[in-house]
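During the reporting period the student researcher (J.K.) took over the structure-prediction task from the postdoctoral fellow and processed the backlog of single-chain submissions. One of the processed entries is reproduced below for the supervisory committee.
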Amino acid sequence: MKPFTTYPSGFIVFLFALLQRSHGQCKEAAKKSEMNLSVKYELPHFVAETPIQNVVLYKHHVYIGAVNKIYVLNETLQNISVYKTGPILENPDCAPCEDCKDKANLSNSIWKDNVNMALLLETYYDDQLISCGSVSGGVCHRHIIHPDNPADIESEVHCMYSPRVDGEADNCPDCVVSSLGTKVLVTEKDRFVNFFVGNTVTSTFRPPHVLHSISVRRLKETQDGFEFLTDQSYIDILPQFRDSYPIRYVHAFENDHFVYFLTVQRESLDSQAFHTRIIRFCTLDSEMGSYMEMPLECIFTEKRRKRSIRKEVFNILQAAYVSKPGAALAHEMGLGLNDDILYGVFAQSKPDSSEPTNRSAVCAVSVRTINEFFNKIVDKQNMKCLQHFYGKESKYCLNKAFSRNASYCRAQDDEYRLEVTTPLQRVDLFMGQFNSVLLTSISVFTKGNLTVANLGTSEGRFMQIVVSRSEPTAPHVSFQLDSHPVSPQVVVENSVADDGYTLVVTGKKITKIPLKGPGCHHFRSCSQCLLAPPFMQCGWCSQQCLRAPQCPGGTWTQDTCLPTVYEILPSSAPLEGGTKLTLCGWDFGFSRNNKFELKNTVVHIGGQICALEAKSSNKNKLECTVPAAKTPSFNISSSVSVGHGKTLFNTFSYVNPVITSISPTYGPKSGGTLLTISGKYLNCGKSRRIFVGEKPCSLK
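J.K. obtained the following structure tokens:
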């Protein structure tokens, strides 16, 4: 039926009820119910005087490696001790760790800041902190940690450098780290402490401070330095490629009897494009004959029309983390709870560059799968020699057969280091969700059955998101931590006693963030609050999302939500009924299983049911058809009921539209006259059509 009002001269105004769908309506209500991304949380933090590079947690103390300083903090991140590591006076005639003060006024002496390139814990010989800096050829110092006073790292400090004896090879096993970038992994095997080191090197590194691209060295039992077991305990990029073929070592880890490094480097000597590689060799292989490299690709695929698939490759790794899965993710990936998973945040680079863009993806692969892939590819002979280490004309590169024994360790005489040519591919876990942001940090922990990732961005935002392969997830925590990028260097302490925490570095600042999240009041709607992961312990209290201790006076619930009505469109309709009414708001159709359900939802307008249209309704919008009314009534009492309670509103009116005047009252037969029709409630309903006699008059 079309409700209408007439005027004696034959004008009819139809007030249409059944009209176009309300596309785009309720956007404001949806926006108001979104998670508050501007919320501020007060968290324990410490600000150093200089930028922070590394963090180590040991016996409830936090050791921070920064430019020119090592700080010791307690569990609440209060500074309890500082050790000065720089600036250092350097002179070509001064050996590392030698006092050079008498040469301070010489023209070839220079003061250099000491950037902390590696901060490591070693507990086999003593409880000690090993710090390696960017000065003095990359040598390290060891700080004895006293059991009765872990804050004291100053009383006993030893330089880990031994001057070479005449006749020794032109080498420097004590020159450990590169000022251009390094990754160091410490392992303890068979009563020996080994340091596996990956360094970015260029032609500027020259004797006596020789640095190797990748190496394994043993900590001497005297602990005053290191030793290479053989002249095969290191691999170097050939001198002619050191400046044109940079390798950045992003992450290192040990698993079972293998050591792994993750790198970003050019796809080949002849290519300008960059990609990510996994390096693997055996922990006990002092000559690294078992060394292999393999490309690792994180991809996002999107199905498009006509069955075409768009594939994007996120080629450069920004940060990585290795941890075990929760029960849900382990089941989805066909893994056990003790299987290790490598997680990585990848970015798309600028063309022919290793510089990242603001487009990221997150990929995960089990270490078991990495090993199976290596083995499968070796069997297929999809390999070639490492040209940047050997050169294209090397005898290794001219040999076409590649052999590997079953264990891939304890290499035979005819085995040597090689490169796998087939990439291991994995798909973005979050389906393109982070394709407009640069992710710079990741760590992963488990709570109950869930696996949760902490993510950081280049703009200083911290996020938490549940990792799932079976259903889409979105961040349940997202707040601005700082204006500086979140560092890849993170520490996770997942203790049962205090629910655990993560230590996150941004520039000169380190912040302690609870694993259960910093709080709950960034959730602005009840349904968001109650659908948060259980370990966050969020509940609804007095129109806010809070934890139970923060809700002393109100009713704290984790079960039900009453809907909120924010706006009604239209706000009035003719008495005849039939108008489509749109209720904008949030928490409509809430259910604990996160599925939109309307079976218990009833809308009453003035005591009568407004018939719901489930297909055109959602969590921010209800559409229903208004019943007829006998008499006009304004701001009538209405409600949305959901079984356990109801939400009242009184912003809807029934009106009787009336035309009171028309101007002008006549016009030429040819038409074209602009009419002005005045009256009451002519804007009710959702649309209007005007007829003069039986002919339509288009509404301006």
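The committee noted the following: The domain at 560-655 is CATH 2.60.40.10 (Immunoglobulin-like).
J.K. will present the remaining backlog at the next meeting.
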